[in-house]
Each structure stands twice: as structure tokens, then as C-alpha cells.
Amino acid sequence: MRRDLRLLPVAGGVWAAALLCVFIPVAAGWCALAGGVGAVIVCAVALRRADRAASRAALVVVMLAAVAAVSLAAMSSLPGREGAASWDGRVVEATGEVTSSASIGRDGRLWMEVQVTGLGSPGAVRAASAPVRIGIDPADGFDLGATVSVTGEAEATEPGERAALVVFASTASVETPASGVFAVAADVRSAFIARSSRLPEPGAGLLPGLAVGDTRAVPAELNDDMRTSGLSHLTAVSGANCAIVVGAAFWLAGLCGAGRVLRVISAALVLAGFVVLVTPEPSVIRAAVMAGVTMLSLLLGRPSAGAGMLALSAVGILIADPWLASTPGFALSVAASGALIMLAPSLTRGLGRWMPQPLALAIAVPTAAQLVCGPVIALFAEQQSMVGLVANLLAAPAAPIATIIGLLACLAAPVPAIADLLAASAWLPAAWIAETATITARLPFAQLVMQPGIPSAFLVALVSAAIGVVLVDGFRRRAIIRVGAGAVLAVVLALGGAHVVLSGPLASATSPNGWSIAACDIGQGDALLIRSEGRIALIDTGPDPAPLAACLRALGIDHIDLLVLTHFDLDHVGGVEAVQGRVGSVLHGPTAEGGDERMLQRLADGGATLSPAWAGQRGDLGAASWQVLWPQRRSTAFPPGNDLSVVLEVGGGDVPRSLFLGDLSAEGQRMLERTAHIRGRYAVVKVAHHGSADQDAQLYADLHPLVALFSVGVDNDYGHPREETLASLAATGARVLRTDRQGRLLVGLHDGELQLWTEKQPP
């Protein structure tokens, strides 16, 4: 079937212009001028010529006009955004209207978008107009349409983000609750969440996400499993949800005897009502438009026009909101919709050669989406799900059932008996999806960690293209192309198999066995292991679970006897999910906010015992012993954070005498030396704060370490480790080891002598 692809270059040109305008705002005016003038010139030339080139000229005019429109849309908001960004790093008070649904972030905060109408210092708010993202402690009432007021520390965003500012709120209040249809929708959603919460887990927290896109009740662990298994698109309102609603409405109208036109109108009305119910924020509207266009092109029997309709919809969305051009969600929506329209039919025919047609269709839809979305995911995310196709095939039959029945249960709230019955009926498929996510996420090598960016996207695109060539029906007679694709897949499978063996069964075999201290290479952050007689202590977890999990796997570690969280900065606790449920006891520094407490509670729920750390605490780890040297029990010299990092001394048995300094600054180090009365020489010292310049040289001179460990990332904006710190340690005669240059670092003690291993040689 020949497809109408003429509008695809138009969409590509507008998308490129939108990216240019949002990443380089000063170019928006020139881009708008060039687009407008170019459209006029091309139109004038086309009117003077009456030949076949007129249609191509018309497309160029459309593209240039759309470029001008998207540039003007981006330019119109520049003054407000620039004014908001000037508050970077300051405490602000902001008032405005909530423009999105609220969701729980990985830090435990409730995050939402707000269009501010007032911004300034606390008590001195001035009129302003800019999109701002705020994070607050979980609370009720922050619904779409509500007017809110928050006070907190502001941080400017990176170019390309819709929000001009991020506010980490210390206080937040609802000034005016949501009203009208938004208030009704919020009440209906809240009643449904309350009804769902009475059902058992797994499935209870997931059901509101499947039915109405409210993810606040989804447990953090399940949310991570959904992401790992490639099912996260089901936990929020995505094109899949909207497509299910459109398809169900179209089918139900047909069942009632409606004609095609009436069925289309019914489906559109139902989709509009669904959007209002789940909050008509930009991401929902984007998903609804994309899904509606895709489904209607198929339902109307015009798949050949689907690509053009999709391109036109993308152009319209970008003109309305240019900042969507840089968001992964928009790119994935376009990619998935395009895959369903253009690739799924060919895949179905290709797979149909080996299996029944219904099964071929069931496999072709998620496969097409996976092949096309994979390169997009590789641009933004570090993880590629290796079980996504299988998980989606298993969850696919349950997703529409849970969505439709859950939605009906939500709407049946005025009749509690029926609502309870429907919610209980929707719970079963929701529980199936939750179990599918949990089981598949726990499979070995469920995800592949890759450095996000263009090289990774190119590699994934190459593999996806090779798979597509092998499966798609149209390449059956092109032997050379199919042989090339097969060769690519053979190489990838061989390399992948080698990686599985080396990082799986043989992972621990490739690491020396005599180590007692290990510094994991987890990027910019800390994750240090101590081992004695088979007992394991872990000091901090780094910024991300995946690198820590890989380090533990490589060292053959399944259980952590003692987890020390020195303080709660992301680069020290962001990877805690990698060990959740596998920790015996937790020793932690002072907490600063609700998110810290919630993190500790999740560890406790996984079986760990919690203890706040104070100077003087002691304990054993196998044949070694440990002692907390800092902070003092009633210290008020510093707020929770770097200077109240837990400082741990470990030694004895087969562990060399070692000191782990957390992120102490020079002032904190001086107070440590005054209060801890440190004496004698240390074999190993973990240098404070990744080797920042804020160090007390006298402390290191007094410690006189044999080995100085720097846990630091290759790409960091701080210049860590600083040259003056390296020089200070070199002056003590210490052997400097750095994770950014030498990878994973191992230290052992044999016959009283230190042994050192590094993953790679320094440059």
C-alpha cells in the first residue's frame, strides 16, 4: 500500500525549528522572520507558475508558515521566562495556577507544573508570567486549576525545558481550590483512588494509573519495575490509554448500530471527556491527539493517509507548545504512533508467514513500537529494557480490560455498590500487570545500561533496523539487504552473549578475591564497600541504582549487612533502590526533609533496622570493627547535609585502618579533628567531597594516609578532584587512586602489606 508521505518533511522542518527556538531562544525572532518572508517569496513565485511544481511549492509555503508560527509562539514567552530565570539560586515566593496533574517523583516530592502570576522574594511578590515546576511534600488539594502559593529555593532549568524555574518548596498552600469541571474531575479521581486503595496489593496502587492516569498511589518499587520492564507507559495517561478509549467507544457505537460518521463523533466525544477526567495538561492532550489520529486513520480504513494526519497533528501541537519538541514524551508519542501506522502492518504480514494472523498482529504492534522507540529512548535514558517486548505481550491483554473497567468504576462513583464491583473486577487485570512488571524486572539482565546520546541512539537504531529488515515482509526478495541485517544481528548477539557471560556467571570470577575495600565506579558520587569474613558494609549508594547493581554483581555481593548513608544528597543515596530488600541494618546521618524519611521507611519495609548515626557508636563487621567519629549527637553547628556527613573509621582483622570522610568541608574537617581526637596513621582515606577544593590540608597531613581514594565521575561540572587537593594529598606521600581515571578500585591487606587493584590503567 502506497502511503502519503508528503507532509513528513513539513513536520520535520517545524520540529527542527522548534528545537532551535527552545534551545537557542535568541534565534526565535530571526527564525520567525525567515519563515514568514520565505513563505511570501515562495508563494509569489508559485503563483507565477502553473506547472506540477505548484503542489511542491505549496508544501514549502505550509512548512515556512508553520516555522514562522512556531517561532513566534516560542518568542512570545521569552520575556517572562527570562524574568523567572533571574531568580536562580534564591529563595522565592510564587503564586499561580496548577496546569498539570501531580505525581510523586523519585525524591518523594509531589511535582506539578504551575503557571505563575506572581514571583518574588518572600513577602514581596510581583506580577509575573512564566511556567514553573514546583515540588512539595505530598498533600491534598493541589489539583489542576487550583491557585497555589509556595515558598522555597529556586533553580533555573536547562535550555529546552518548558518550565523556566524549578522551586523546591519548603511551604505550600492552596489559595483557591479547583472549581467547575476540574473540581468535579478531581473529586471523582480522589473517590476512585480511595476505593482502589481498599483492594489488596499488587494492583491496588496501579489501578488508578491504568484507568485515569493518577500515579500517586503507585509504590516506588513497582514504579521502578514498570520502568525496567518497559511498561511505564501504562502507569500514566499515554497514547495507549487514549487509543484504548477511542477503540472501545468506536466499537460500542458500532455495536449499537451507529454508522461510521456517528461512531467517529462518539469516539471523539468520549476521548474529550476522558481528557477532562484525567486533567487536560499538555502531555495528555498530546497523547490524545496522537492516539486519536492513529486510531481514526485505522478505523476509517485510510491507513495510507495516517502518516499525513500524524504529521499535521504534530505540526499543530508544536505550534501550540514548541517546548514539547525537546521532550522524550512527545518524541515517543510520534514514534509509537508512526510505528503503528507505517510499520505494524508490514510486520504483521511478515510474521504471518510463520504463525496465525491474530498472533502475528498481537506481536507486531508492540514489536513495531519497540523498534521505533528504542533509538529515541537511547537519546535520553541510560537504561534499555531487554524484556520490554515480552512484558508488553504478557500485559497487552490485561491493559484494555483494566483501563475500561477501571474507568467505568471511576464514573460509577455515585452508585457505590456498582463502583465497588467494577473496581474489584478491574483489580484482577491490574494485579496481573503489576506481577508481570515485577517478575520480568527481576529477570537477569532485564535492562541494559548505556550512555545516553547520539552514539547509543545510532547503535540501537542499527539493531532495530536489522530486526525490521529480517521480519518485515517487503524485504523478502532483497537477499543482500537481508544477509547484511542478519550479519549485524549475529554480531550483536555474539557480543551480547559475551557480555551476559562476563557480567553474569563469570562476573565475580573476573575480580580479584583478596580485596577488603572497594570503591565502585558509579559516576559522580560515593559507593564504597568493606568486606571482612564474608560480611559486607556499603557506605552510600551513588546517584543511580544501575551502576551500583553492576558493581555489586561484579563483586559477587547479594546481601548488605550494614548500609551507611552518610547524608541524603542524591549522589550518595540515589542508588538505594539497588539494595532495597537486601539490607540488614542502616546507619544514617540526620534527615532534612520528608523525602529522606520516606526513603528510610522503604528500607525498613524491606527488612532493614534503622539507626541514626552519632559519634561514639561502635560495632563489628566480621573480624573488623567500626566506629562513628562524626557527627556529634547534639551538634547544631551545621544544618543536615555535607557537614553532618557520617564519618566512619574501620579497621582490624583483614581490613586496613581506614577513614571515610563523607562530604565534609574544611570547617567540618577541623571540627572533626578537634572532637574526635584522631591519632595515628591511616592506611586508606576516602577523600572528602570527591576532592573538592574545600579541604583542610592539616587534617590529611595528620592522617598521613598510604592510599587516598577519590570517588568521582568523569563528567562533573565541579572540576573534581581539584588540583590543589591532589597536590595536598601528594605532599603527604599518599598513593592517589581515582574512579574517574582508573574505574573500580580495590584495596586488600595481605601479610601486613597493602594490595591495590584498578579496573583500568590511568592515562
From TrEMBL:
Residues 524-703 form the Metallo-beta-lactamase domain. The chain crosses the membrane at residues 12-45, 57-78, 231-254, 261-278, 307-324, 330-347, 359-381, 387-410, 454-472, 479-502. Keywords: Cell membrane, Membrane, Transmembrane, Transmembrane helix. It holds the Pfam family Lactamase_B. It comes from the Bacteria. PANTHER family: DNA INTERNALIZATION/COMPETENCE PROTEIN COMEC/REC2 (PTHR30619), RECOMBINATION PROTEIN 2 (PTHR30619:SF1). This is Competence protein ComEC.
